[in-house]
Amino acid sequence: MDFLSFWRRLKPSPPLRARRCVLCHDSVSDGLCAGCSDDVAEAFTDAANSCPLCFRHMAGGAVCGQCQKKPPKFERLWASVYYEPPVSGMIHHFKHLGDLSMRLPLADLMCRHAPDWLDAAGIDFVLPVPLSKARRLYRGFNQSEELADILAQRYGWQVLPRQWIERAHTPPQSTLKSSGRLRNVKNIFKLNNPLPENCKILLIDDVVTTGATLDELAQTLKASGAGAVYCWCLSRSRLKR
Hints:
Elements: H1 3-10, H2 34-41, H3 65-69, E1 76-82, H4 87-96, H5 103-112, H6 118-121, E2 125-128, H7 133-139, H8 143-155, E3 158-159, E4 165-167, H9 178-185, E5 189-191, E6 200-208, H10 212-223, E7 228-236
Parallel strand pairs: 1-7, 2-3, 2-6, 6-7
Antiparallel strand pairs: 4-5
């Protein structure tokens, strides 16, 4: 038994469905009560006024100037909610405190505000954005995997095995300024198995800020045979206009 499996046995995962609302703690069956569900919906992103490539605010949903100048390696990016309370608190408890009761309500939020291009994308495989071995060992799980597994069950997608791709250990992106994030993710991904030629891959992540990690991963996948890469993130930081 490896250390991660041992850790899991010491700290068993909570039931997939929370017995109480994870925010107000009223009795419910799906993680969020009706009132909190309505409150959280206020954080849904304004897709009609977001750049389709980076999801920064852009009136009318046009491609922003930055993406016109330097298009990302992925085809489309979507974020379901803005990274602000109460969602930011839910993500913190999920990601950094190991509260796995948050995974279902957070995945539900993604499904409630899913990409409008999802049906037309023709997804072949889903890939949770990988963690380095060291960070996964420290955290005990990959939050993006937890979300991707639920989404894959609901949409009938095939998830690429974790062993197919490795990520080098670097400082967390959240600890760096924007100028250092591009350098921090340069050449950090390594594919261990070939991809089916021209396959379409959907990346799943919890938080996107600059999109540097997604861009680097998309570039690695396309260099290995992927025909198209799409990105669906739970949340997006609000950037200054």
